[in-house]
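Notes on consecutive records. When two proteins share a document, each keeps its own sequence and its own token line. Never mix them. Below: protein one.
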Amino acid sequence: MYAHKRLIKRLSPDHQKIEAIIRQLENVTAGFNGECRVDQMVQEVLFNKHFYYFPNFECQLSPTRIAQIDSVLLTQSYILLIEIKNMRGTLHFQEQPYQLIQELDGQSIAYHCPQMQLLRASDTFERWLKNMKFQQLPIYKTIIMPNNRTVIKTAPTTVPLIMSKEIALFIQKINELPVVISEAQLEALIHSINVNNKSYKHRPLCEKYNIPIEQIKKGIICHCGTSGIRISERTWHCPKCQAVIPNAIKQTLYDWFSICAEEITITECIDFLSCNSRTLISRVLNNNNYIAIGKTRSRRFKLNNEETFYQ
């Protein structure tokens, strides 16, 4: 979401791909809001046993087979895999072939079927658990629609589909299942998942949308989209907002890493920041937020911890 918002600020308003990027941002934002709504509803569940809840779960069975699951709930009795679709309009879950058809504003749009996505993810996750030598817990699956105004014209037949208000009762019902593994076995499973759960790897958006880096606006850009004016070594002022741009250098560098490329040289940094102080740039890059790669002449830098840039 952050990367798409910043890309829009750094592209010309009439760029040929700007509409596609705005649509993708809307889809990502809707998906995120839907997942947050489901997370809140899960908190209403009355659990009578230990449980663990993993949002944004990802496991890798092989170099070419990865399961991405919106949320995973684990207890001593079962595993629940949750796929969340925050969509508007009228939906048809079509089978043979599997497709999700959305009717919205007089148009029909086809998507990959969430039912098939969840069935494939469940198969991958089950095989992954067996490879980890864990006793098999029964795996349940559900598709959740957080938007209560969505009309389901044709429901899926294999995976149950529920609305957000049904979540608590749905989970409380399967909470009645008998215990299969001990608390110690569950803790061991959770530890193994924490060790092996793949973290999300961001792909620079120029690569994703095939946009030349030369088309990205350079310099310090305020959140309003206005180019900042430098008033001291580390401070930039927005002529439109009439305010100091917070974390100007840090934000601009994250724009580079999230939009342009995974690595940067000092020369590229000077050019992108539109800052001629090589001493300042060297001092900024040679801190704990970045990892230096290579020798002095060809040294490149990459993010050390991407999470620090989301704060």
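Protein two starts on the next line and is unrelated to protein one.
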Amino acid sequence: MKRTELKRRTPLVNRTTLTRKAFLPGKREKKKIGLGQAVARLVGTHLQHNRKEPSVFRSEQHCKNVAALACVNCGKSSGSGGPYKSQAAHLNGVEFGKGLGLKVSDALVMALCPDGFMRRGCHALLDQGGIYDKPTAVAQQLIWLQKTRDELKKLGQWPQEAEDDLIRFVGAYLRRAEA
């Protein structure tokens, strides 16, 4: 089969310069209001759109405190002869509020180790490994969560907001399981 090559008759020319204004933080232009919104403001019936408070506990500091602990599954930590710093791993159950694009409360995190050189970490094994069946995985995660909570309580780093969310989500799951 003969291969034919197509050649351009005219060279490609860039007529407008490419800009990245929309992607730079702080450089985005403020969106103008539409006619309907302008009329609603004049009449006094426009809506005030305020951002809602998160419905679950979110704390970057709490996640850092959890990540500073040793892995609750295998016990590896940065002090155990390797660069294994734990990660704050969220519970993986739909039962606890996880969904497509949704992460559970930061109160429901446990310390699990990441992948290392030539070894799968406990976090990856839980998330992608499929080493546990569903009931075993949920039970194991609840045990790990309890260990993490106990460890943080010993250190005085367990916030009351985390306790409230823990009772709200895990308590609801346990009540459903009993019924």
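For the record: Strands lie at 87-90, 109-112.
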